[in-house]
Amino acid sequence: MSVPLNPVVAEVTARIAARSATSRSAYLDRMAAAVPSRPMRAGLGCSNLAHGFAACAGPDRLAVKGVSVPGVAIVSAYNDMLSAHQPFLEFPAWIKDATRQAGGVAQFAGGVPAMCDGITQGRAGMELSLFSREVIAMATGVALAHDMFDGALLLGVCDKIVPGLLIGALAFGHLPAILVPAGPMASGLPNAEKARVRQAFAEGKATRDDLLAAESASYHSPGTCTFYGTANSNQLVVEVMGLHLPGASFIPPGTPLRRAVTEAAARRVVEITAQGDQYTPIAQVVDEKSVVNGVIALLATGGSTNHTLHLVAIAAAAGIQLTWDDFSDLSAVVPLMARVYPNGSADINHFVAAGGVQFLIAELLAAGLLHGDVSTVAGPGLDRYRQEPVLDNGVLRWRDGLSQSGDLDVLRPFADPFAADGGLRMLAGNLGRAVIKVSAVAAEHRVVEAPARVFTTQEAVAEAFRAGELDRDVVIVLRQQGPRANGMPELHGLTPSLSAVMSRGYSVALVTDGRMSGASGKIPAAIHCTPEAAAGGPIALIQDGDLVRLDAEAGRVDVLVDPDVLAARLPVDAPALDSEWTGTGRDLFAALRRSVGPADHGASVFGPAVPDLVPAS
């Protein structure tokens, strides 16, 4: 029996479709025009094609040369420095064998960079992190631009990598594409203990050796970090969008099941090429309904705030105009059903054991909060995603997931959620617009009114903390951290210090045009403030001592200064000139910095150009 769709979900989806009608139609027309009747490489000249199989051998050489079977591109973010991507080393060989058995031929088409925000946190390299998404999208485009392929397998996990792969693949939306994850590492040091040691170190109560020991016990083996940051939010969101095989997200690396599901993805992509009878291009999978499903999955689990940027940019790549108002309206009707660190003490493996994605999807479908009538890489409809993969005497099959939560402290049913809303809220006021994640913020800390202390660098905040200058009720205003200023680095390295201030009994909040990411924790933080300071946004007008009010309950962020006084002010600090934004490769990204759009449009360079950055006088 069909469950009626929640009226707010229906209304938001309808207005997205109406708003996007022209751009979506133009996108779909372009993709339809690109669909070949034969394998793509059949249109190549002999010299072109010869280059394409020169390095092949054996049956793969004959298959590529013969232009009669589907060609599959492998695009991978493998490197062996990052734990989440190191398992991808073995995947191409598995994929090639499985593709061959399914009647296709797979080639490693290209690699994309995979940057670790955990390594670059607080370093100059973090200023390249968000822009790496655009580089990954372009690198994916380069890999698929050879007209050799009829489908793609996209191997990626973390932060900007999955959004970048998707944006790149959507430029080739006539091709089917399946995202292939690597899975999380085993659980390590409990998250509450990790947070305790971090705060103790910030307060000078733990040594560097103590901190390194705790971090090493937390991040200890191949696989994705187990907290619910952007990497694991990526996996959950794209699975609910139908871009993984059902249950693929959180199978540990190095297990027979991980290999079996990877091989199944290779076989499946052959089946859904234009040469088969189940043609399912990615342009068909990523539509208005699946985008709304992705937002709802994010909200229901208290996922990464980075997706208020990434989902907007991904949608735009498919001709769909998603806005922060859509997030806000959906958040009001989507309950918080999961608590995974930093929104709780559990990690992603505990979430899986409690019922994971399958239980979540089943509950949301039953509540009318997800569109069930969508296209997915597994076939029509979202019902398949209630199932989890298992090996039965070595044979891969899918079975129904848990019908009841295995741990109500981690995952709850729709009827008994942790909170009535999704914990991700939009703020507006005389400081512009911003995002706040409240799922980990205690109710008594959601409204803060205090004098501002203004900074333009993370280092200056840390120095003020060490000097005891923040031991009072305070709103930290950290500006010149937006995409045009310095690439919008993540700032969650501030969390231990600000948590220490809060633990001393003070009211504390953060207002910034930078990011905090999926590691946003118990500090109320108005992030992604737009217009950013470097674009002349009002955050640039705040002065030390101004009263700032952050009210997450009312959805407001304001500086309590007379409007005439505020209007008469001029910005007091300027963004760095390109000549100053150098070192650690930053000068290579200056063109992206000049052309990047605002946060509420996805902080993307793929869109209308913005004027060159002009330093404030």
Automatic annotation (TrEMBL):
Catalytic activity reported: 6-phospho-D-gluconate = 2-dehydro-3-deoxy-6-phospho-D-gluconate + H2O
Keywords recorded for this protein, A-Z: 2Fe-2S, 4Fe-4S, Amino-acid biosynthesis, Branched-chain amino acid biosynthesis, Carbohydrate metabolism, Gluconate utilization, Iron, Iron-sulfur, Lyase, Metal-binding
Residue intervals of the Dihydroxy-acid/6-phosphogluconate dehydratase C-terminal domain: 409-603
Ranges of residues in domain Dihydroxy-acid/6-phosphogluconate dehydratase N-terminal: 70-382
Pathway recorded for this protein: Carbohydrate metabolism; Entner-Doudoroff pathway
Chain ranges passing through the membrane: none
Superkingdom of source: Bacteria
Annotated PROSITE patterns: ILVD_EDD_1 (PS00886), ILVD_EDD_2 (PS00887)
Co-factor binding details: Binds 1 [4Fe-4S] cluster.
Entry annotated with the keyword Lyase: yes
Enzyme class: lyase
Residues engaged in binding [4Fe-4S] cluster: 158, 225
Job of this protein: Catalyzes the dehydration of 6-phospho-D-gluconate to 2-dehydro-3-deoxy-6-phospho-D-gluconate.
Similarity comment: family membership: Belongs to the IlvD/Edd family.
HAMAP family: Edd
Protein's UniProt name: Phosphogluconate dehydratase
Protein source organism: Actinokineospora diospyrosa
Taxonomic path: Bacteria, Bacillati, Actinomycetota, Actinomycetes, Pseudonocardiales
